[in-house]
């Protein structure tokens, strides 16, 4: 297949150089977007009197047939083509002749590729948005189910204060809601049409860029032709959004890895989402979460690739920018794959509230409530804090907990203690009383589930 730029050159491109220069291996996935853009461009050219109605019909019929044949497998994309734009135009010209050669009037591959990748990523954002909506829905269902399941909350991976499993899960729901908002914001900023900017300086033809933008579903046009063909901000912004999302998935995955271990045993993964060992028959490994943890680094690498690629480029288009597609496509592919596995794994995961409760009973996670009890008796918080610390030390030395420590030991430290302390440090009461906005009280969790569900469906 001939290169679109062949006229200037007397020699064919060296085959190895052609392979190095070619992008068909990764941009061929944009064939639908390339054809959609070409149909919109041809339609505009005809409306402006630049292209005849006969040529428009031949072009639209030819492009529609090419798209259908690629989709049903009767037309294979030529791996020797330089890029998907070259392949589609070459195939069209072979079918409709001179009309195909007129299609590229008032257009460059520079604005063409900028258009195609925006159209492709717009669809990718929509698909990912739906996956995040589904995942948040699963989290809400689980949070509601385990709104009363007491577990230890941690700081520094040390047991800290009592919370509920439902409250813990909703923390990730909040993160994912922000991820959805970031994705939506980035997609809206991306939704500007570069088509008609041509190579870098627009065109002398009387084109209608607003028409092609409307026909392709864009909210407007890019107003600077240099910016239109050389901007890849949207790729970097989307890769950043995906990287933050992968941070959240990786953190969640790390907790599931811990929770599955015998040291915690807070959850049990369904057999369909676990693997075994080739030598240790007792093993049940949370491989999906471990892979997600690892693949986060891959997405971060895609972001760094895009940032590094763009950081030193003068305006306007440079061939370096061909590297944008492999990086951003890989980022989306990786996140999609992770979510496709993570959502059903989480949905089928079984929590073990008895083990969570047992862990919450140790570690003195009700110590703050003990101190608050003394504050309620009139003791300044710092004095109450010190007294409770002494009680914890006594319990550790005697192998007791605050619940089992005799009252006389309490009074030996502070005479304000009475029998009411045992009610104050009851784990269920500790959680129920944490009704401050954003706290883990079961009533809060249930209200928060409804709030998150509403936000998840309305965004």
Characterize the structure shown:
- It is a single chain.
- The chain is mainly alpha-helical.
- The chain has 3 domains: 6-105, Fumarase/aspartase (N-terminal domain) (Fumarase C, Chain B, domain 1, Orthogonal Bundle), CATH 1.10.275.10; 110-358, Fumarase C, Chain A, domain 2 (Up-down Bundle); 367-425, Fumarase/aspartase (C-terminal domain) (Ribonucleotide Reductase Protein R1, domain 1), CATH 1.10.40.30.
- Helix content is 64%, strand content 5%.
- The chain has helices at residues 15-21, 24-27, 31-47, 53-72, 84-96, 98-102, 109-145, 165-190, 209-215, 225-230, 233-260, 287-310, 323-348, 353-361, 367-376, 381-398, 407-413, 420-424, 427-432, 442-458; strands at 150-155, 158-164, 192-193, 220-221, 267-268, 350-351.
- Strands 1-2 form a two-stranded antiparallel ribbon. The protein has a two-stranded parallel ribbon with strand order 3-4.
- Strand 1 and strand 2 form a beta hairpin.
- Helix 3 (31-47) packs antiparallel against helix 4, helix 7 runs antiparallel to helix 20 and helix 11 (233-260) packs antiparallel against helix 12 (287-310).
Q: What is this entry, summarized?
A:
This protein is mostly helical.
Chain-wise SSE layout:
Elements (H helix, E strand, L loop, with lengths): L14 H7 L2 H4 L3 H17 L5 H20 L11 H13 L1 H5 L6 H37 L4 E6 L2 E7 H26 L1 E2 L15 H7 L4 E2 L3 H6 L2 H28 L6 E2 L18 H24 L12 H26 L1 E2 L1 H9 L5 H10 L4 H18 L8 H7 L6 H5 L2 H6 L9 H17 L1
Parallel strand pairs: 3-4
Antiparallel strand pairs: 1-2, 5-6
Helix pairs in contact: 3-4, 3-7, 3-9, 4-5, 7-8, 7-13, 7-20, 8-11, 8-20, 11-12, 11-13, 12-13, 15-16
